[in-house]
Structures are given as structure tokens and as C-alpha cells.
Amino acid sequence: MYKYILFDLDGTLTDSAPGIIRCVQYALEKCGKGSWDAADLFRFIGPPLTESFQKFCGMTAAEADTGLEYYRERFARVGMYENSVYGGVPELLQTLRQANKTLAVATSKPQLYAEKILEHFGLANYFVTIAGPGFNGELPTKADVITEVLSRLDVAGSAKASAVMLGDREHDAIGAQQNGIEVFGAGYGYSAPGELAAAGISKIAAQPTDFARFLLK
């Protein structure tokens, strides 16, 4: 039975695409990389942004760091609230809390932003801890973030069998696998067709409330 349930944020709890994409467009224009269509930027949702700037836009590491600064400039001002909670998420969280599950957030979004977003939408109190990278390079990968959450929850050894990560991208699967915990997929999020299955995820929710049947056994 699962006791510790770790949630990704973007693409799992909230539909954050509008704000993220507009902030990426802003950063790319400020960096002199031209105008990009929103449809080409959905792949930025989930992975660390500096990684995506380099992988998808051909930026150097230094350029990616500058792009991240511009991204955060707009995100902190307006982008984080260009966002909405997926239907069924509050009901799922309430159901899990009533079943005495321990809920946490493990996100690639800076922890400060994640906390503000969850507080804005009235979801923060469902979680015993919210973890994400700092602004100085702390917890650079999803695996690092998951490790941090497990440490905060004092979950180690055989207790990991009762922990599970819920996320919508292959990075969530990789991070969970590197930490030795199970992972379920948010099929309604931002993954490409076949991405979750290719990452080894066999249980995929078509909508948030579907997670309940995987978690309440």
C-alpha cells in the first residue's frame, strides 16, 4: 500500500503552459533568438529550463543562464499566475488526505515559485513538504529533488516500497527510478505520445481523479 505520494507540479497538478511558454518566448526574444511559436515550446514544460534552452534552441551554457534570468524576470512578475488547477485535483488531494496518505510536491520549478503557486490556488495545505531547486544551482535534476523529498519525509530503505512519484514527463520517471521508487504517469499533462510508456511507466491516469484507483488499494 502506498503511504508517501510525491506530485510533480506542472502538467500534474496545474496547467501551467500559458505562463511558461510566454516566459520562454520573452526570454528568447530578449536573448536575440527571434520569435518562436507557442506550439514549438511545449517541450520546455517539465525539464530544467537551462537544459531545454541548450537542447532545443542551440544556446551555449552561458546563453542558457542568461535566458533563465530573463525567464524568471517575467515569471516572477506575471507568468506564475498564468496558470490553472486541473479539474479533479482538489478532489483527489482531499480523498488522499482522508485516507491518511502523506503528500509532497517534487518539482523542477524553483521551490519559492512552487510554494507561491500552490498557496495562490489554495492547495499548499494538502502537502507536508514542497521541494524544488533553489536559485543558485541547488537540486539541479528531478532525481535530486525526489531525493530531497524522501529525506525530508525520512523515507529510506524498505520504506521506499510505500512511496510513489506522480508526474507527466520522462524526467519524473527517471528521477523516481534513480531513487528506487515507483512512478505513475499523468497522461493528461505535457508528455509526447508514447513518452511515458517508453520511460517505463505502465500505470497512466487519463485525468487526475484516475490516480485514486492506483493509490487506494
Rg calc:
17 Å
Strand proportion: 5-15%
Strand order of the largest sheet: 5-4-1-6-7-8
CATH superfamily of the largest domain: HAD superfamily/HAD-like
| CATH architecture classification of the largest domain | 3-Layer(aba) Sandwich
Average pLDDT confidence is 96
User: CATH topology of the largest domain, which one?
Assistant: Rossmann fold
What would you note in describing this structure?
By secondary structure, the protein is α/β, with parallel strands linked by helices. The protein has two domains: 4-15 and 84-215, HAD superfamily/HAD-like (Rossmann fold, 3-Layer(aba) Sandwich), CATH 3.40.50; 17-81, Orthogonal Bundle (DNA polymerase, domain 1). 41% of the residues lie in helices and 13% in strands. It has helices at 17-30, 49-57, 61-77, 89-98, 111-120, 142-152, 170-178, 195-198, 211-215, and strands at 4-7, 14-15, 84-85, 102-106, 129-131, 163-167, 182-186, 204-205. The strands form two sheets. Strands 5-4-1-6-7-8 form a six-stranded parallel sheet, sandwiched between helices. A two-stranded antiparallel sheet has the order 2-3. Helix 7 links the parallel strand 6 and strand 7. Helix 2 (49-57) crosses helix 3 (61-77) and helix 6 (142-152) crosses helix 7 (170-178). The longest helix has 17 residues, at 61-77. The protein starts with a strand and ends with a helix. The model has no long low-confidence stretch (mean pLDDT 96).
